[in-house]
Amino acid sequence: MMETPNDLRLAGQFCDAVLQVEDVQFPIHRIILSDFSTYFKTLFVHQITTDNVFHITLVSPDIMQIIIEFAYTGSITVTKDNVHELMVAADMLNIIGIIQACSSFISEHLCLQNCIGIWQFTDICPSSELRCKAFHYIMKHFEQVINFKEYRQLSVLDLTDILGKDELNVKNERTVFDVILHWIAHIPKEREQHIALLLSQVRLGKTSIAYIENNVMTNQLVKFNPECQKIVNHSFRIMLSLYKHIHKPLRSCLSDTPARPRLPNSAIWVSGGRRESYASCDIEVYDHLVDRWIYIRDKLKDPRADHGTTFLDGYVYFVGGYNLMESLNSMVRLDLRRHTWQEKMHMYHRRRNLSVTVLNGFIYALGGFNGYASLDTAECYCPETNKWTPIAPMIESRRSASCATLDGKIYICGGLTGRYSTRTAECYDPETNQWTLIHSMSISRSQHRVVAYNNQIYAIGGLSNVNSLKSVETYMPETNTWSNLCPMWIQRRNFCLEVIEDHFYVIGGSNFRTKSYHAEVYNPHTNRWFSISDSNMSYNGMSSCVVSGIPNMVDFAFPRDALPRF
C-alpha cells in the first residue's frame, strides 16, 4: 500500500524541517507546507537557520497540530472551543481553507446572543463573507438582539453604523431611540456626549409629533443639547411639511434622514398572468413601507399564468401554470442573491390553476387542471434532493382552489370539482399522509384565496358559480367552524393575497365585467379594509408570494432616493 505524505510525516521519514511551537517540535516537509501557505513558503525561503528549526510564535501547539494535519490531509475538525483561536492563527498564517472552514462553522452557529460579538470579531480576523452574514443577522433580528446585553458593548461608531442603515428591521423608530438611551445608560459618563450623533440616526419623521414632544424633547440629554434641538426642529419641519401641508411646504425629500423609510424586511411579489393573446413574464414588487410598486429587472424565465409561486431559503419558485399553449409541469427558481434562473425537477403531473404552499421546508403542489380534467393528485418537492414525491391524493379533485399551512398541516378550500365551485375543504397531515374533510365553508368558492393567520384560516373573495364575491370568512380548527367577517370593498376573483406585518394585502383580480388594478388591505384586529396604491399589473392568472429576510432586499425595494419631493 502506497504511503501518503502524512504517513511519512508521522513516521518521521524524509522530513527536512521542524516547526518549533513553544516547547513542542513538529517535523514537516517544506514542500507540503510551502504549497499550502504563502506564509510558510516565505518563511522557508527567507529565514536562514543552521538546524532547519523554524520558530512559530503567537500560535499554540494544539492549534499548530490541527493546521499541520489539515495541510497534509485536507480535513479539519472545527469546534466551539477552537474556532476563534484557529481562525486567528489561520489568518496570521494566510491559510484560506481554514479561514473558510471556520467562517462556515461560525455562520452556522450565528444566534441572537453572539451575532454582535462575531461581527466585531471580523475586525480582528477579516472575513468579508462572515462579516456580511453577521451584520445582516443583526439587521434582520435587531429587535430581538437588543434583548441581550451584548449590544451595550458596541462602540459609538459601530452603534451609529447599525442604526443608520436603511436595512435595520424595526417596526417603530421608537425602538431605535430607546436603544440609544439604554446604551448610554450603561456607561453614562462616557457616553452622554454621543447623544446628538446617535439621535441623528433616528428617523424621527417616521414617529409622531406627540411622541417627539412627550418622549424625545423631555429627555434631559436632548433637552439641554443644542445639536439635538436642531435635529428635533428639523424633524418637526419635515413632518409639518408632509402631514400638515403648511403654507409653504419645504422642498425636503423623503430620503432626508428624519423621514427616510427604512427598507422592508418583507415584500410582495406578483408575477406572470395572461391577457388575450399572451402570457406575461413581468414581476412586480410591492414595498409596503412606502406604498409603492416597482417592476424589477428579473423577468420570468418563461411566460406563465395560472401558476403557483412560493419563497423558500432565498429562492422564489415558480411552479406549473399555463403558457397559452399547454399546461406545464415545469418548475424554475430565481436565486435572489445572484439574480440567476435555475431549472428544477419537473412535477409528475401537468398542473395549472394549482395550489402551492410550503411546509417544513418542502414545497407542496396540490390539484389543478391538466388540460383535460381537474386533479385530485398532490406531490411534494424536496429542495435538497431536487425530487418530487407523490403524496396521498385529495378526497376531492380541485382546481382554482387555494391552500395555506397552519400548525403543521395543509388546509385546502373550495375550487372547481367539475363545472361548479364547491364549499368543501380538507386538511392534510404529513405525518400520517392522510387527508381529512373539515367543515365546509358557508358559500362555494373558486378562484378565491386562502391564508393562515393567528391560528385561523381565512377564505376571501372568489367566484361562486356565476357570482364574483367580496365576502370573507374564517375557520377555527379548534371548533371546526366558519364565521363571516367584514367583506372587501369590491368583488373580485383570481386575485393575489399575502400577509405582511398583521395585514392582508389583496391585489388585482377581476369580476366578469372588468379587470381590477385596485389593491386593498385588511386589518384583522379592527376587521376593516382600506385602500393602498394600485398595482400596475392586472392580468388574469397572476401569482404571488412574500419574499422576506434576504440580505439584498435593496435590489427589490422601491429606491429610497427616488421618493417624491414635497
Keywords:
566 residues, alpha+beta, Potassium Channel Kv1.1, Chain A, Neuraminidase, 16 helices, 27 strands, 27% strand
What does this structure look like?
The structure is a single chain. The chain has 566 residues and is α+β, with helices and mostly antiparallel strands. The chain folds into 3 domains: 5-109, Potassium Channel Kv1.1, Chain A (2-Layer Sandwich), CATH 3.30.710; 154-259, Serine Threonine Protein Phosphatase 5, Tetratricopeptide repeat (Alpha Horseshoe); 266-560, 6 Propeller (Neuraminidase), CATH 2.120.10. The protein has 16 helices and 27 strands. Helix 6 (96-108) runs parallel beside helix 8. It is globular. It starts with a helix and ends in an 18-residue tail after the last strand. The model is unreliable at 245-252 (pLDDT under 50).
Would you summarize the structure shown here?
By secondary structure, this protein is of the alpha+beta class. It contains 16 helices and 27 strands. It has three domains: 5-109, Potassium Channel Kv1.1, Chain A, CATH 3.30.710.10; 154-259, Serine Threonine Protein Phosphatase 5, Tetratricopeptide repeat (Alpha Horseshoe); 266-560, Kelch-type beta propeller (Neuraminidase, 6 Propeller), CATH 2.120.10.80.
Percent of residues in beta strands? 25-35%
At the first level of CATH, what is the class of the largest domain? Mainly Beta
Shape assignment: globular
Please state the average pLDDT score. 92
